[in-house]
Amino acid sequence: MWPEVAFYRTEWVRNWYGGYWDLTNAHESDYGGPAVSHCPQRAQLLQEMNEDDFDGYADSLVARGNTYHDLGLLWGARLSSPEGIFASNVNVAPGNGGNVSRHLIFMTDGAMMPSISIQSAYGIEYHDRRVTANGSNHHSRRHTERFLAICEAVKAKGIRLWVIAFATGLTEDLETCSSDDSSFLAEDADELNEAFQEIAKEVGELRIVQ
Questions:
Q1: Does residue 129 form part of some domain?
Q2: Cα–Cα distance measured from residue 53 to residue 168, given in angstroms and rounded to the nearest whole number
Q3: Is residue 95 domain-resident?
Q4: Gap between the Cα atoms of 40 and 67, Å rounded
């Protein structure tokens, strides 16, 4: 992403409220200048972390922009794949010689809500058209299709995919995304804590393998 060189290229651009911005006389400080963009936080590769380190990293995360389930899960998949660009990190052998079970937790606090007007990892969708042919029609559906495809790719790698819907609906798409018996609806902080405790219990359960 390079927001400083991203510009709208028409006089009228549809906004995420369903209306249109008139950019005829727009200046750089207006929406005619660099497109609205929200660069994500720097990702954390897999590593051992104590509680203070984890809390510090989690507290540094700030949610901004629209909700893209497909982009969030895509980076979770990249960071967890034993065959991907971070394979050398993912495949580090455990120090105790034990077997590895792989888990990925996808949590969202909102419904899928991509925008054709802001800059994302797919550029400005209205102009760059990396999601749909005309930059607008059915773009939300296309993002959802990508999301579900990534879900299946994660599970095909032997990774158990947990899904938590926090203070939002546990939709059919989210349930389809998760592995069997691996989805949760948490309506408040107590239920969210219970969901993570249940996941921790399942992940930490000792198993005999042959």
A1: yes
A2: 28
A3: yes
A4: 12
Asked whether 126 and 136 are in contact (CB, 8 A), the reply is yes
Helix, strand, or coil here: 199? helix
Q: b/e per residue, 73-101, with b = 16+ CB within 10 A?
A: bbebbebbbeeeebeeebeeeeeeeeeee
Cβ count within 10 A of residue 197: 10
CATH of the domain at 62: 3.40.50.410
Q: Are 189 and 208 in contact (CB under 8 A)?
A: no
120 domain residue, yes or no: yes
The residues pairing with 7 across neighbouring beta strands, listed in sequence order, are: 34
State the amino acid at position 5 in one-letter form: V
Average pLDDT over residues 155-164: 97
Which has the closest alpha carbon to 58: 203, 194, 205, 192?
192
Cβ–Cβ under 8 Å, residues 114 and 64: no
Residue 184: strand pairing partners: 164
* Tokens coding 199: 């996941």
Count of the separate structural domains present in the chain: 1
Query: What's the domain range around 189?
Result: 50-204
Question: What pLDDT does 27 receive?
Answer: 43
Asked if 102 and 159 touch (Cβ cutoff 8 Å), the reply is yes
**Mean pLDDT to the nearest integer, 69-85:** 94
Sheet with 159-166: strands ordered across = 102-108, 159-166, 183-186
pTM, two decimal places: 0.83
Whether residue 19 lies inside any domain: the answer is: no
Q: For residue 72, give the H/E element and its range.
A: helix 69-80
